[in-house]
Amino acid sequence: MRGFISNLTDLANNLGSDKGSAMTPLGLAPNKYTYIYDLIFDAYRDENINFLELGLAVGGPEVDGPKDRKVIPPSVQMWLSYFSKAKIFGFDISDFSHIVDPRFTFVRGDAGVESELRRVAEIADGFDVIIDDASHASYHQQLAFMVLFPCLRPGGLYVIEDLGWQPSTYESILPKVPKTAEFFVSYFENRKYIDNPLLSSAFMARSNDLIASFAQFPPFDGAGGPTRLVVIRKRRADEHNRGLDTSTLLAKLYSSAAPCTRVFTSGGTVLYIDLAAGELRHGDAATSPANVIFVADAASTGSSSRGWLGFDNGRTWEPIACLPHRSFLASLETKSAEGTLLEVIQLERGLVGFTARSAFVCAEPDGRITLSRPVCSAWESFIVSEDWCTQVWPTETLRTPHMAAQSVDKLGVAATVAHPLARARANITSAKKKIAFFGPIQWSNGRVYYDLCKILYNKGYIADVIDYRKTYGTYINELVEFYDIIVAGLDTIHILRDIYGIPANKIVGISHWTFDIQEIIGRYGCGVFAELAGYGVVGQTLLWDSLTLGVPTIPKIVTLGIDYAEFESQVPERLLAVGCASSLSAKNKFGIEIKRGRLAKECADGAGLKFKPAGFWTGGNTPIHEMPKYYQSVDAVLVCSLTEAGGPMPATEAAASGRLVISTPVGVFPLRAYEGLGIIAPLDPEGYVKFTTDVLKYYIDNPKEFLEKCNKGKEAAKIYDWKFTVDSWIDLFESARL
Predict the structure, then answer these.
(1) pLDDT by residue (tens digit) across 624-647?
(2) CATH of 8-234, one of 1.10.3720.10, 3.30.70.20, 3.40.50.10800, 3.40.50.150
(3) Which of 34, 10, 135, 14 is nearest to 74 (CA)?
(4) Quick one: 574 exposed, middle or buried, by C-beta within 10 A (0-12, 13-18, 19+)?
(5) What pLDDT does residue 614 have?
(6) Rounded CA gap, 142 and 156, in Å?
(7) Cα–Cα distance between 709 and 156 in angstroms, integer?
(8) Is the pLDDT of residue 369 over 50?
(9) What's the CA gap between 597 and 606, in Å, rounded?
(10) Phi/psi zone of residue 53: left (φ > 0), alpha (ψ -120 to 50 degrees), beta?
(11) Nearest to 549 by CA among 511, 518, 515, 589
(12) Closest by CA position to 387, among listed 259, 252, 266
């Protein structure tokens, strides 16, 4: 029930608002806007509406007043009293968060900053009334209209006050636009568009299609004069259908029951509709509205998944037309009113592509979204928030009913690192743990983490790599909240703990060699291992090293595996070229050279063979997903290291490729050599060169024995395929103490 209020004007006068008819306690002349407001707002008084006012009190920076002021805005109390059920939303450059009422929500921001206005747009599912009583600067008024008018519900009212006065402080420094009253009256009453760098002719044309009525009012003192107030009413749904076909098909498209999902690019940006241009773009997820969804077609069968990209206005959605040069709201072109029907193609690690007319949707570097690429690769890979999009085709085939397998650049997709922040903001759910590997995306460990992410995802986990070389700032907290555990090498745990403040009980530590155990003990003592969520080592010798160094926690042994099918290739017939698959040179923290790639070249030269290095840290820089091709370009692979982090992985990969492997007795290689994977060479430089050169010469002279040795190593490598080794990692993750 309403309390006793004769009318809105009396209420305004009692509360000291300049919207009423009496002089305010601050000596401000009345604007008498309540004369019209009481007429047009009365129907809403007992309705559950959303009411937004921009600008809550006089005396701000627009009149050279302080931004950090603390006053009681009379209009907030006036609206709360006048509307019995409405939710009142306020926006101001000053802080009014001290106003507490269950029906009032405040957002602080600058009306000249589009991203801050968009924060207002996102706090409610549309508004029934919007009043702009903010700075009154022309640019601010028009920017607010551009951002917020699309959020006005059908039948809603958009009001702009005090159009007869603009603050000189702002007008002199803001981008030049026409005066708001002059621009709106010219367009809506005289049907003449005045050139405007902010409100384009296309935007105004679309807005005009949505507007039922426009009214301008002079000052309410009876003396006449220039426009002081404008009121715009948006069409109700039954007044105008925006020119869209209302066929049974479109009725089905707009069904709220259809499954839908948010869409992010693999690089971490979000798809959104630029409301001013009606164009589909992608941008920073922190500042761009997440107003685009992918909506499934109910007619899709179990063997395919189809649907539309659509603009989500919070109540319904509108399909998007995707063309080779740009994508936009389908209603802008009646020929494409139903939008572009896309097929979803499953890639790997939860990535998907969208395709139609033998082309893929692409997130262009300049922010456009196009349907233009004949091949799906990195820029054509997307992350969705619902897993029904990723459960269509078998991962290994990568095909759609009408596209050839070569339409997917498998190496390009594999090299695409799914941005963990996009995964977190998509808020993907999983019945199993969500795991992040904090480490490299290159080198042998990068390959291990990639393989694990791919395999774990297929087993129902969410798994991603957080590149430890990048700086993540405050949004690391979003990642920590999203992922259940963070897996990190012992030598990188100090970054997580000391720089990002991540607690040890969120971290599963992995030891790749003895030095990282020594390093973490030196930093935190042996007690840190008991604090970790889990602790694993990549070989039996590291378990003994851990115990020898005094670590009381017994680690789980995890086995470094390979994707055998990816590396497997035909054994070479003769020994003609020698390779070195790791970096040619690297020094440890004591300045000691540990890779010693020069020894491999000496051996190749001594045996009269061609030398083909594939160094990651020197000139070669062979990407990890092109290593299978590299192994096929050589006939033998040499490992010359003084020490290795668990592996050496190139030895197992090269053996799987059918190549002769000769390595120093580092990491787990002695055991794998015993199993037939390769040949152990002496550790000292002179002994290594002499021994390895002699072995190479022997196999040059004995091609039959060379062929047999390569086949034996290839066979021995099979047991290190991930299907035999991944369970040790899953056991570690599942036993983590959360």
Answers:
(1) 888 999 999 999 999 999 877 667
(2) 3.40.50.150
(3) 14
(4) exposed
(5) 82
(6) 18
(7) 80
(8) yes
(9) 14
(10) beta
(11) 518
(12) 259
Q: What CATH architecture applies to the domain 248-394? A: Trefoil (2.80)
Nearest Cα to 346, choosing from 285, 410, 292? 410
For the domain 430-557, what is the CATH code?
3.40.50.2000
306 beta partners? 343
How far apart (Å, rounded) are the C-alpha atoms in residues 520 and 528? 8
Contact between 503 and 482 (Cβ < 8 Å): no
Q: What is the pLDDT of residue 388?
A: 56
The mean per-residue pLDDT over the stretch 605-612 comes to 94
- Tell me the average pLDDT across 505-519: 92
Q: How far apart are CA 533 and CA 522, in angstroms?
A: 20
- Tell me the pLDDT band of 241, cut-offs 50, 70 and 90: very low
Read off the pLDDT of residues 27-75 as tens digits, 9 standing for 90 and up: 778 889 999 999 999 999 999 999 999 998 776 655 455 556 566 678 8
Distance set, CA 372 to CA 262, 364, 377, 380, 447 (Å): 22, 10, 12, 10, 31
pLDDT on residue 404: 44
Tens digits of residue pLDDT in 291-339: 898 888 765 544 457 888 998 876 677 889 999 998 998 877 644 457 8
Number of H helices, E strands in the chain: 25, 30
- Give the C-alpha separation, 427 to 431, whole Å: 13
Q: Angle 649-656/703-717 helices, nearest 10 degrees? A: 110
Buried b (16+ CB within 10 A) or exposed e, 488-520: bbbbbbeebbeebebebebbbbbbbbbbbbebb
- Residue 465, pLDDT > 80, answer yes
Average pLDDT over residues 120-140: 92
How far is it, in rounded angstroms, from Cα 543 to Cα 557?
7
| Angstrom distances, CA of residue 392 to CA of 203, 303, 364, 491, 687 | 39, 6, 26, 40, 56
Distance in angstroms (rounded) separating the CA atoms of residues 16 and 20 = 8
Q: State mean pLDDT over 716-721.
A: 95
**What does the block give as tokens for 362?**
């692409």
Sequence spans of domains, the chain = 8-234, 248-394, 430-557, 566-720
Contacts of 522 (CB under 8 A, 6+ apart): none
pLDDT for 721 beyond 70: yes
Query: What confidence tens digit (pLDDT) does each residue in 531-547 have?
Result: 999 999 998 888 999 99
Nearest-angstrom CA–CA distance, 70 and 79: 19
Render the burial of 7-31: b for 16+ CB within 10 Å, e for the rest. bbbebbbebbbbbbbbebeeeeebb
CB proximity list for 110: less than 8 A, separation 6 or greater: 93, 116
* Token pair belonging to 354: 């969208």
Distances (CA, A) of 653 to 53, 321, 386, 447: 65, 46, 35, 11
Which stretches within 29-128 are classed as H helix? 34-41, 74-82, 114-121
User: Which CATH number does 566-720 carry?
Assistant: 3.40.50.2000
Higher local confidence (pLDDT), 210 or 728: 728
CATH topology of 248-394 equal to that of 430-557? no
Parallel, antiparallel or unpaired: strands 229-234 and 462-467: unpaired
Chain centroid offset of residue 71 CA: 40
